[in-house]
């Protein structure tokens, strides 16, 4: 087993797991210093490409962004989302999971999980590819799953998600994301399985938390309830762009400090010739 995954497993009920997303080397270099897990999520579709659904994200996009992220990671566990329509059956899932691992050198793949693909996850695990699961609100399935609605608000629905979590653990997942889930349900699931749970809009009782980095730093226009904005980088970028444009118009930039001069002896030599 990957030593990084062993480290994640060892944190269960002991130390909180920190997860952040990254879609490029520059972001990964920063998040890697503080995160236990760096996720290249298919959320890049909405964050970077303004897609109205993550279902439009392609395998090629995930791989290319992941290659960039890999260059920025030194210590954290790198997990890559398997995008929509890349794991519809065992054969397809195994081919694409292997392709992601080989092309990106990531540590694991993540799959939005339900009772239709637990056997598929088992097949991927047979190939010794680590899998992170994902239950609760699933962005790839919101259209057929009733939209962006919090799961488990009705206690009569709890058994489905608890059973899914246990089945996902049995399938061989090393951890799972609990997204958009009523807090008491997420707490119960976390207590009833032996692998770590990573919450996003779930519960502080989860073994770890994940946020989309761009949400956390104020670079997206939509801020869900579960997001805390720690800084607004968007405003800082706007201030910098405004200062730059004013200095260029006023001929204050570039200065001699930002340009290159010639060697005086070369200038004299050219004049004499």
Plain-language structure description:
This protein has helices at about 5-10, 25-30, 45-50, 60-70, 90-105, 120-125, 160-170, 185-190, 215, 235-250, 265-270, and strands spanning about 15-20, 35-40, 75-80, 110, 130-135, 175-180, 195-200, 210. Helix 2 (about 25-30) crosses helix 4. It is built from eleven helices and eight strands. The protein has two domains: about 5-230, TIM Barrel (Alpha-Beta Barrel); about 235-270, no CATH class. The mean pLDDT is about 95. The protein is an alpha/beta fold. The chain has an eight-stranded parallel β-barrel with strand order 1-2-3-4-5-6-7-8, surrounded by six helices. The longest helix has 17 residues, at about 235-250.
Quick synopsis:
This protein has helices at residues 3-10, 25-31, 44-49, 59-70, 90-104, 118-126, 158-171, 183-192, 213-216, 233-249, 264-272, and strands at residues 17-21, 37-40, 77-81, 108-110, 131-136, 175-179, 197-200, 208-211.
State the strand order across the main sheet.
1-2-3-4-5-6-7-8
**Major sheet, described briefly?**
8 strands, parallel, barrel
Taking all Cα atoms into account, the compactness measure Rg is: 23 Å
What spatial form do the alpha-carbon principal axes imply?
elongated
Mean pLDDT, as a whole number?
A: 94
Distance between the termini: 71 Å
Number of helices: 11
Helix content: 40-55%
Structural class: alpha/beta
Number of domains: 2
Q: What amount of the residues lies in strands? A: 5-15%
Low-pLDDT parts are none
Give the strand tally. 8
């Amino acid at each position: 087993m990957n030593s990084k995954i062993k480290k994640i497993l060892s944190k269960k009920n002991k130390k909180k797991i920190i997860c952040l997303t990254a879609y490029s080397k520059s972001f990964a270099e920063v998040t890697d210093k503080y995160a236990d897990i760096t996720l290249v999520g298919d959320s890049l579709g909405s964050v970077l490409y303004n897609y109205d659904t993550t279902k439009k994200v392609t395998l090629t996009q995930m791989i290319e962004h992941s290659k960039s992220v890999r260059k920025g990671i030194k210590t954290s566990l790198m997990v890559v989302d398997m995008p929509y329509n890349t794991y519809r059956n065992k054969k397809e899932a195994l081919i694409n999971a292997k392709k992601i691992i080989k092309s990106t050198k990531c540590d694991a793949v993540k799959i939005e999980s339900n009772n239709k693909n637990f056997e598929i996850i088992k097949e991927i695990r047979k190939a010794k590819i680590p899998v992170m699961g994902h239950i609760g609100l699933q962005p790839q399935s919101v259209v057929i799953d009733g939209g962006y609605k919090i799961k488990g608000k009705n206690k009569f629905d709890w058994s489905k998600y608890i059973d899914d979590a246990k089945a996902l653990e049995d399938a061989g997942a090393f951890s799972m994301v609990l997204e958009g889930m009523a807090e008491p349900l997420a707490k119960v699931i976390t207590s009833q399985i032996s692998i770590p749970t990573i919450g996003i809009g779930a519960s502080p009782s989860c073994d770890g938390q994940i946020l989309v980095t761009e949400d956390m730093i104020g670079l997206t226009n939509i801020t869900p309830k579960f997001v805390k904005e720690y800084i607004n980088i968007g405003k800082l970028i706007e201030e910098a762009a405004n200062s730059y444009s004013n200095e260029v118009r006023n001929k204050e930039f570039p200065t001699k400090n930002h340009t290159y001069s010639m060697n005086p002896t070369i200038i004299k030599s050219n004049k004499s010739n």
